[in-house]
Amino acid sequence: MDLCHVPATREKGWYLALMAPNVKGPNYAWLDPSRLYCHPQGLQDCVADLLQPFQGDAIDMVAGIDAMGFILGTAAAARLQKGFLAIRKAGHLCVQTVAQPYTDYSGREKVMEVRTDAISPGLRILLVDQWVETGGTMRAAIELVERLGGVVAVLSPSVCVPTGVAAICMENSEGGKWIQERYKCSHCVPPRLQPRFDQHQ
Prior knowledge:
Blueprint: E1 20-21, E2 31-32, H1 40-51, E3 61-65, H2 69-80, E4 83-89, E5 97-103, E6 109-115, E7 125-132, H3 136-147, E8 165-170, H4 174-182, E9 185-186, H5 194-198
Parallel strand pairs: 3-4, 3-7, 7-8, 8-9
Antiparallel strand pairs: 1-2, 4-6, 5-6
Helix pairs in contact: 1-2
Organism: Hylia prasina (green hylia)
Family: Belongs to the purine/pyrimidine phosphoribosyltransferase family.
Protein name: adenine phosphoribosyltransferase
């Protein structure tokens, strides 16, 4: 699909076909969504689909995860007319921070951090990243938000705080399921395609 074409019928997830497969080998992610962001309508529809489950919810701020989560997170914040908080890889912020170690999708040990002056107790946060594969990165971001008193949507029979987690794809890995079982989540992959994404096909 070229970067100008817009299908006559735009079903949820139509823009997933814009993503490019890995041609560089096993040290890279299996799919590159950044081509989707180059398509004007594709980007707009992707953000709209991510935000649809949160319509009417009280969201105070959007937080995006370094680095590709900055793109979707900023776009979501702009559409919601909310502020945007960058959750960074460690070592990039020159202000007071709180840090959280994690293991990313490739098995590498990393640390992320967030400034301590942006989240006040009870602030309702929508966390956005490009992809949730093993869930390690998103869980670390959730931990940072909650340690500072922010609220991410917790699902239980009696409580559902109206903020949550959004990503283009949330794989049904052990970590992905852990997040989806506990937090209000949104992603763009139709159910019929989910098995292919889980198997990296």
